[in-house]
Amino acid sequence: MSLYRDTGVVLRVQKLGEADRIITLITQKHGKVRAVAKGVRRTTSRLGARVEPFAHVDVQFYTGRTLDVITQVQTLDAFGAGIVGDYQRYTAGCAILETADRMSAEEGEPVLRLYLLVAGALRALADGERDASLVLDAFLLRALAFAGWSPALTECARCGDPGPHRAFNVHAGGSVCLRCKPPGSASPPYEVLHLMDSLANGRWDSAERATDSTRREASGLVAALLQWHLERQLRSLPLVERRPFVGRQSAGEAE
Ligand SMILES: [Zn+2]
């Protein structure tokens, strides 16, 4: 029996059989881990309460044949206590967990930076000192950067002209100059891109001066960027897997 320990945040829990759960965590050293917590759905289980979504935990696993098994859990931060009772914090928190789950696609692939971003964002949400939607947008912009999808926010995404520019195009990669601007680009006010730049770089004093309408418009652009990149990433998967199948079939028909 091979044991290992790691620190992680619980992203998701799923039922398994009568009494068990599969727990998905984003960890410091082992990337995304899916492991079985046995007996946690019994009301007497002390382990069960510790492996709920948003929990920041220190876990001991043993390596199983298919899934690893959780043998010990210590709570580091019960972030859920400060999150689940407030609708805005809860929805922002769920978006953070779901994004982290989708961005850490490969199990076991190290994602230290993403883990740190998740833990930091949940801590800020649970503390409740910052606007939950700003915390979420700051997390999403940094998660985009982690994935290599940082939008251009001052320079032109196409020609690199230093800017700042008024046009913004999700498909083109962010702000674009008048010469490069594709049809159908948005024209957000300067303050919107300035807010996104402040959030991406942790300049909270500047970010918190933004008006509600600026915050709303920035949230819309951040959501559009995330959706575009995640969908494109997912759309590429079926294409990769389908091609050899179609190829074999058509080769068979030709014979
Ligand atoms: Zn340009």
TrEMBL record:
The protein's matches in Pfam families, at most eight in alphabetical order, are given as: RecO_C, RecO_N
Q: Which domain of life is it from?
A: Bacteria
Question: May I have one GO cellular component term?
Answer: bacterial nucleoid
Mind telling me which InterPro entries this protein's record contains?
A: ARFGAP/RecO, DNA_rep/recomb_RecO_N, NA-bd_OB-fold, RecO, RecO_C
Q: Which residues form the DNA replication/recombination mediator RecO N-terminal domain?
A: 1-79
Query: Could you confirm whether the keyword Electron transport appears in this record?
Result: no
Q: Name one GO biological process term.
A: double-strand break repair
- What does the UniProt keyword field contain? DNA damage, DNA recombination, DNA repair
Instruction: Explain the purpose of this protein.
Output: Involved in DNA repair and RecF pathway recombination.
Q: Please name the HAMAP family in this protein's record.
A: RecO
Q: Which family does it belong to?
A: Belongs to the RecO family.
Protein name, entry field: DNA repair protein RecO
Gene that encodes it: recO
